[in-house]
Design the sequence.
């Protein structure tokens, strides 16, 4: 039973990682960064406060992305290991023939 929630978490992590590597992610990040600087320029927030919030958000995002990327790498390694087992079994069958 505990495997099913972990599988959902892994699938969600892989989905987020795929989205982050997409053109729409670049667009969203660009708009967000521009909005931060515009908010500072029109004095909705002080420049120092905006930089503090933006730097903190970017730092947290980098931490989570590193974790998500590692999850993706681990998942790819598991898939490769399964394929290697299949190839070994096929090779054994070929050798028997």
Sequence:
């Amino acid at each position: 039973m505990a495997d099913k929630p972990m599988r959902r978490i892994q699938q969600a992590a892989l989905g987020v990682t795929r989205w982050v590597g997409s053109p729409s992610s670049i667009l969203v990040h660009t708009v967000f960064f521009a909005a931060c600087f515009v908010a500072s320029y029109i004095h909705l927030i002080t420049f120092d406060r905006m930089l503090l919030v933006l730097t903190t958000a970017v730092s947290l995002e980098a931490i989570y992305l590193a974790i998500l990327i590692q999850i993706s790498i681990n998942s790819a390694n598991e898939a490769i290991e399964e394929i290697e087992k299949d190839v070994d079994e096929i090779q054994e069958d070929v050798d028997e023939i």
Remarks:
- The chain has a mean pLDDT of 89.
- The radius of gyration is 22 Å.
